[in-house]
Design brief:
By secondary structure, the chain is mainly beta. Helix content is 0%, strand content 50%. The protein has strands at residues 2-7, 10-12, 18-26, 33-39, 46-52, 58-60, 68-73, 78-83, 92-99, 113-114, 118-122.
């Protein structure tokens, strides 16, 4: 079992920034990739960004590329999502997830453990 706890969500104005954090605990030795997904009301959960645990390979969705940056701190078993130039369409619940697979997969069903989610709202 792997436990994931997200933090850092909130309300921000368009053009603003937020930094999300996700701390992993438990049996993390099988974790090869960590990722962020998001889900807006009435929409399916979508891939945002992923990072491989050993090689720092990263992958981003086209909608956030150039605005969001995923990073990790192996010593703290944590992954972060720096979100800049936020737009109203970035409003969603953001979830951290872990996968045993290499290659930064993008499908939710390739991820085993999920956090409880943190709300990000971009609005005037």
């Amino acid at each position: 079992q792997v436990q994931l706890v997200e933090s850092g969500g909130g309300l921000v104005r368009p053009g603003g920034s937020l930094r999300l954090s996700c701390a992993a605990s438990g049996r993390t030795f099988n974790v090869n990739t960590m990722a962020w997904f998001r889900q807006a009301p009435g929409k399916e959960r979508e891939f945002v960004a992923a990072i491989s645990w050993s090689y720092s390979r990263t992958s981003y969705s086209d909608s956030v590329k150039g605005r969001f940056t995923i990073s990790r701190d192996n010593a703290k078993n944590s992954v972060y999502l720096q979100m800049n130039s936020l737009k109203p369409e970035d409003t969603a619940v953001y979830y951290c997830a872990t996968s045993q697979w290499l290659g930064t997969p993008r499908e939710p069903n390739e991820y085993t453990y999920w956090g409880q989610g943190t709300q990000v709202t971009v609005s005037e």
